[in-house]
Amino acid sequence: MSDAAADPASGDGDLGDDLGDDDLDDDLGNRVVGAVPRDVLAYVARELVDDPESVVVELDGRGRRVDLRLSVAPGDMGRVIGRRGRTAQAIRTVVRAAGAREGVEASVDIVD
């Protein structure tokens, strides 16, 4: 291995060496804002219900705020809401955390 290949400052190394993490975070490119919390919500809901084909997640994004609407089959509504709303609250917490990781504020509404 030559000294030029070992020295990242020489410019002969990988092109990704010149980009810092901040450069990647600021440029969203073609990514859909809110895609991570939407996908997390869809996954969790499909795992909870008896009819995963009926799960529909709609995304309404405004800037860094994302509103998600979850629809499931009428027979699965109780499974998604849970006793005293505990399952629904847990879903909201997990989706909010997924949104925070992406840098968006995510909220979940369960609609019938």
Q: Could you explain how this protein is built, in words?
A:
This protein has 112 residues and is α+β, with helices and mostly antiparallel strands. It has a single domain (32-111), classed as 2-Layer Sandwich (GMP Synthetase, Chain A, domain 3). It contains 5 helices and 3 strands. A 3-stranded mixed β-sheet has the order 1-2-3. Strand 1 and strand 2 form a beta hairpin. The longest helix has 17 residues, at 86-102.
List its traits.
112 residues, alpha+beta, GMP Synthetase, Chain A, domain 3, 3-stranded mixed β-sheet, 5 helices, 3 strands
- Class derived from helix and strand content: alpha+beta
Catalogue the unreliable spans: 13-27
Question: How many domains would you count in the coordinates?
Answer: 1
Task: Note the overall shape.
Answer: globular
The value of Rg in angstroms is 20 Å
How many β-strand runs?
3
Give helix % range. Answer: 40-55%
Q: What's the CATH topology label?
A: GMP Synthetase, Chain A, domain 3
CATH architecture: 2-Layer Sandwich
* N-end to C-end Cα span: 64 Å
Strand content: 15-25%
Give the overall pLDDT as a whole number.
82
Reading the helices and strands in chain order gives HHHEEHHE
